[in-house]
Design brief:
Number of domains: 1
Helix content: under 10%
Order of helices and strands: EEEEEEEEEH
Radius of gyration: 14 Å
Shape: globular
Strand content: 35-45%
Distance between the termini: 31 Å
CATH topology: Beta-clip-like
């Protein structure tokens, strides 16, 4: 799958966590469900609402990554069924960490740092 192809595995819909990304079919563990192009910029430039949608770079703690595609719609779960990995220059991939059934929401773990200084508790 390339960054411009539509994934056969996903659809966007409303769920118990709000708008999110859901499985259109059963997906095995270790499967790439979406590859998203990204914008990368200095972490200090991300403020306000934008801060809710950026990921930390694994390569440089001073850089933030904004995923395009449906990348900003993956909701948090401490029992996540996906993770994101850097997938080459300017791309991240969402990969299943266990099998996901059709109709289930794909979730990632935002990490403890995402919740620091927020008036919210992880779900």
């Amino acid at each position: 799958m390339t960054a411009v192809e539509k994934s056969e595995y996903i659809m966007v819909s409303e769920g118990r966590l709000g708008r999110g990304v859901f499985a259109t079919q059963d997906v095995p563990q270790g499967e790439i469900v979406e590859v998203c192009p990204t914008l990368e910029f200095e972490d200090t430039a991300a403020s306000g609402t934008l801060r809710d949608y950026v990921f930390s770079s694994n390569d440089d703690e001073n850089m933030a990554i904004l995923p395009l595609g449906w990348g900003t719609l993956y909701n948090h779960s401490a029992d996540n069924n996906c993770e994101y990995v850097e997938h080459g220059p300017g791309q991240i991939a969402f990969v299943t960490v266990r099998a996901v059934e059709a109709g289930d929401e794909f979730t990632i773990n935002y990490g403890d740092g995402w919740w620091d200084g927020r008036d919210e508790e992880p779900l």
